[in-house]
Amino acid sequence: MVQLSALSGSLLGHWLPASLNMRNSDIVAMAAAAGLSSVYHAPLASAIFVAEIAFGISALQRLIPLIIASVLASMLVYRLQSASTYPVVSHHLNRSEAKYDFDNMRVDQLIIPGAALQPAESVGQALAVSSLKRERYVYVINQAGQFLGVVSIHDISRKVLAQEITLDSPVSSVMDDNFPCIYQHQSMREGWEAFARVTLERLPALNNAQERRFLGALTKTSLIQKAQEFL
User: Fold this and answer.
1) DSSP string, 124-177
2) For 107-229, which CATH class?
3) What digits encode the pLDDT tens for the residues 41-54?
4) CB atoms < 10 A from the CB of 217, how many?
5) Do the strands 202-206 and 116-117 form a parallel or antiparallel pair, or are they unpaired?
6) How much is the pTM?
7) CA 184, CA 225: separation in Å to the nearest integer?
8) N or C: which end of the chain has fewer CB within 10 A?
9) Which residue pairs from 56-61 have beta carbons closer than 8 angstroms and sit at least 24 positions apart in sequence?
10) Which of 38, 44, 45 is nearest to 79 (CA)?
11) How far apart, in whole angstroms, are the C-alpha atoms of residue 197 and residue 111?
12) Strand partners, 146
């Protein structure tokens, strides 16, 4: 930007009438200071920097025109609402911080409650809970809160229609005990990778692999919303 501004100033200096009695070096310096100020929104610093580079020991004597050019350039950019380097850098830093958070923050911050039944409860109750919560899967836990598996509303409907089970059958008769899950200590990136391996909208969240205590559910939507902060 500084080089382009200086080049523009040099070209302008050749076109200005000699009656203005302005040295080409002054015009180039004013243009360079204006260009620097328009990018960084720091008119005084831009003027002093260019004056020291261009004029050396005589910088103070020729500083006023550079300050005027820098201030005018900064005001013009502000009026045009043009993006300067600071907002752009700030935006990228915010995205970088959001990306770091996504890679390192634990999924337990996004866990929501999930519908759960005991193994002896009926598939009719599972259908009622699914209808109320609008969920395709109902989680099954024991009395200690340990996760045992899930029942799929699709599987229940299919088996009821095939007369393999009745609405009074226990959910344990249609339970899938090999259902994927996520643990609370895992990072959001690991949660994202877990969803990439399945075609599910939510995964059961457990405290750890040993106790497997049911905490709730992690949704794909919540991870997508978090990822949008840096995408």
Assistant:
1) HHHHHHHHHHT-SEEEEE-TT-BEEEEEEHHHHHHHHHTTSS-TTSBGGGGEES
2) alpha beta
3) 777 887 787 777 76
4) 24
5) unpaired
6) 0.58
7) 19
8) C
9) none
10) 38
11) 19
12) 213
